[in-house]
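It would be a great kindness if you could assist me with a short task in structural biology. The full record is reproduced below for your convenience:
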Amino acid sequence: MTAPSARPGGRRLLLTTLIDIAAPIALFYGLRAAGASTFLALLAGSLSPAASVAVQWVRARHLDAMAAFVAGVMLLSVAASLVSGSTRFMLARDGWVTGLAGLCFLASVRARRPLVFLGGRPLLEGRFRSDGTSWDVLWEREPSFRRIWRVSTVIWGIAMLADAAARIVMAYTLPVDAVPGLGGLLWPVTLVLLQLVNGVYYEVAGLWRLTAGAGTGD
């Protein structure tokens, strides 16, 4: 099992996420104030998260599963925006990407390892209520452990689809310059609700009992 010190810390991940959300919004409104077109300002903003992924690659010489997934859907959305040339489509880009991500989460439920497991493992394994047992061992040994992560992945997938629908509606109905700011505010709302729902589910389903070595008797 990878040593905890080699894993990305929760604070660093949170800081990176905040930068990836805030930087495109700041860049958009800064360019708009400087007289840039809406489309150009949105396109420039979309390159900021891509730069973050590139920095991770340069520093670590690899991307974890979640970062690679994000990079892939990001590049796809930018390519689609350039082909369409539509400002409204560009505004809805985050919605289309989030919707695609939600579908990928749902599709991964029956994969060898669902996406939420892959994303949560670097943050939680060996750090939180753990007796040191590898999650690979728990995955093979405990049906409840596998079920928890599959259900959690479904929760994430449904939440992302709901978030995507809200973003697409905003993009095509609200004033153009209001959408990036409101879309940025929607991210923390979605993430906080997801963390609350998942936190309650993990506790009720017994995830932490399993990682602490208590088992469930399945």
